[in-house]
Design brief:
This protein has about 190 residues and is of the alpha+beta class. It is about 30% helix and about 35% strand. The chain has six helices and eight strands.
Amino acid sequence: MGKFDKYKIDLKGMQVASVTYDYLLDSVFFADIDGPEVQKGRVQVQVTVKKTSHTYELTFQTEGIVWVPCDRCLDEIEIPVSSTDTLIVKFGPGYAEEGENLIVIPEEEGEINVAWFMYEFIALSLPMKHVHAPGKCNKSMTGKLSKHLRTSSDEEQEGSFGADESMLLEEDQQDGGDKTDPRWNELKKLLDNN
């Protein structure tokens, strides 16, 4: 028996019009799936399967908490997840993805493994930035980070630019400031041809 066999849903063998499956996704699930976004969590997923004339509508109701690394200090941050997602499944000659939420599976198999779909719906419900609230980041890491972000007194005299950037600005100002890189002119020609 494989790690994800318990997440297989037999669509071909459905005897009733609607069936509900409950899954508790724990840290073992996230470690087994080995996805890049989430490594640990405790999420309850309810999958409701409704059979229609030619398709199956799978509704994923997700509630729980996941732990991901903070983008700033790399310590774990707890993020609540809550989403409702839909997946339409139909039978066909082979596996295919048609559209944003339409999946085709071989009719002879007649089943779908929803493990990766559950993981993807959780990962997609996360915010883009994973950052602790102000003052909650790891103090030693933020100290090291701010040390490397500080500017030297030489750079402060030149403004917010580094030495190389300041020299480029000075050269540009001496040339009248209107001179552009010839590569941009070539790219502009491409735009003009359209």
